[in-house]
Specification:
mainly alpha
Length: about 190
Amino acid sequence: MATPSTPTQQRIVVPPKRSNTEFPLIDSDPHFKRVIGYARTRDYAEGAAMAAFGPGLLLTLEKFAPSYVGKGGFPPLLRLAVGLGLGAGFFHVYQSSSLRFYGWTENKREQEMDMREMVAKVKKGERLYGESTMTPYMQGMAARNSRYTGLWLHVLPWFNLVNHDQHGVDTAKYYQQAERELEAERMEKS
């Protein structure tokens, strides 16, 4: 009688499609915290301007062409304009930062920040993209569902909130840079 064997589990990785872009890809599925953390001051300024535009326009129109809706009619409209403005401003900040991760816009600063962050993690012995309690299959599913979602943010707001290792880049560059830096530090000490 044959002994039952344990089935081997094969990990299936669907590689992300790479776009031909002028700038290098940093991450095809950046985590929410990285996107917000890497956003530039200009992104926040543009987002604030976008958030203020709707309520500002509504107040300006009310001043020059009053609606005469009465005491209870204008405040709800203003609250709606503020809410929509804040949402639009946030989406603008998120999408501007995401486009730099995808390499669709100039991303020199983000490349340097990414290299510093990842090399520091390598030196500490940490996982590059964080620890996850999910199974590899679930991590892959999460990666496939949130890859390049910053492009369709205006249609369906979807963010990567999962730590996984499927980001569409060769991580060997981080380990090689960490080795070079550690070697330089070692040579400096001796």
